[in-house]
C-alpha cells in the first residue's frame, strides 16, 4: 500500500490545489457525457486514453467488458447502465475491448476454468461472440484471440440494446452506441462503423458510430 498512500498524499499536495475549482463544482453534482464500458485490466485506463477530466466519464469495468442482456434479476452492470442513461442522461455509450485480453484469451483458447467458477459463469455472457468466432478460420492462435476481442465488442453492443433505458434512449434519438478496440502496445483505437459493418481506425474515421437510431440519422 505504500505507493498508494504516497500517491494519495502527492495528489492532495500537488494536484488537487490546481483543480480545486473543478472539484468544488463536482462536489454536489455530475453530468458525464459518456458511459464507458471496458475491461478491469490494469493496463486500460479510460480517462488516460481519452484524455478526459474527472466528471466527464461514467465508467463500468469488469472482466471482458461485458454487458449481460437485460433481465429482471439485479446486477451491478445493469443497474449502472440504467443509472447512467436514465438518470445522468449520457449521450454516448462506448463498449471498449482491448488487445491481449485475458478473458477473451480464455474463451478463444477454451481454457479450463473449473477452478474459477465465478469467472466461467460470467464469461457465458460472451457465448454469442464465441460461437461467431468459432465459425471462422483463423491463421494463428493469436489471430483467433484478436478476432474474439472484436466479436465480443459487437456482441456486447447487441446485449446493451436489450436494456429498456438504452432502447428508449435510442428510439428517442438521445444516445449513440460506439464499439472500440484499444491496442495497448500502439495506443491505437479501432472503432466499429455501423454503416460499413466493419472496424476502422478511429484517427482516420473520428465520426464512426456503431449504432444510432433512425431519428439521429435523419437529424445528421
Structure in a nutshell:
This protein is α/β, with parallel strands linked by helices and 220 residues long. The chain is 42% helix and 16% strand. It is globular.
User: What is the subunit arrangement here?
Assistant: single chain
**Share of helix among residues?**
40-55%
Biggest β-sheet: count, sense, barrel?
6 strands, mixed
Q: Provide the gyration radius in Å.
A: 18 Å
Residue share in β-strands: 15-25%
Distance between the termini: 50 Å
Annotation, overall tally of beta strands: 6
- Tell me the strand order in the biggest sheet: 2-1-3-4-5-6
| Mean model confidence by pLDDT | 95
Number of helices: 10
Globally, the shape reads: globular
Order of helices and strands: HHEHEHEHHHHHEEEH
Low-confidence stretches are none
Structural class: alpha/beta
Structure commentary:
The protein is an alpha/beta fold and 220 residues long. The chain has helices spanning 2-15, 20-26, 46-50, 76-86, 102-108, 117-123, 127-134, 141-160, 164-171, 214-219; strands spanning 34-39, 57-62, 92-98, 176-182, 189-193, 198-201. A six-stranded mixed β-sheet has the order 2-1-3-4-5-6, covered by helices on one side. The chain starts with a helix and ends with a helix.
Notable features of this structure?
220 residues, alpha/beta, single chain, six-stranded mixed sheet, 42% helix, globular
How would you summarize the topology of this molecule?
Elements: H1 2-15, H2 20-26, E1 34-39, H3 46-50, E2 57-62, H4 76-86, E3 92-98, H5 102-108, H6 117-123, H7 127-134, H8 141-160, H9 164-171, E4 176-182, E5 189-193, E6 198-201, H10 214-219
Helix pairs in contact: 4-9, 5-8, 7-8
